[in-house]
Design goal:
- By secondary structure, the chain is mainly alpha-helical.
- The chain contains six helices and no strands.
- The chain is elongated.
- The mean pLDDT is 91.
Length: 117
Amino acid sequence: MNRVRAAASELAAALRDYDPESMHHLVRDIPGLGDALADVAAGVRQMASRAESEWPVAAPVAEALRSVADDIRAGAGTAEEARATLHRENEVDIERGVAPRHGSRDIEAKWDVRGAE
């Protein structure tokens, strides 16, 4: 479990320290959150299968591990909702990056909102 704990700490640190260069990077990167949680859920589900078939533990242990996997998988679904919300709530901003006016991101960048204050 030391490897699992170390990997979890590394994931937590990566999420805590995540600082996208631009919001377009966030749009590109956010699906990875759901993917990461789905991978963790798959690992816990595999652990549950092994508990059931290979380890000398009571059946409720495997059931509890499956429940943990299901909860994590639900979190992956919630991460997908966050991705959908990001797209819905920032549709215009995302569109400007995908299809900038006059076909140039450099021209679109002239809308530097830092100078608007």
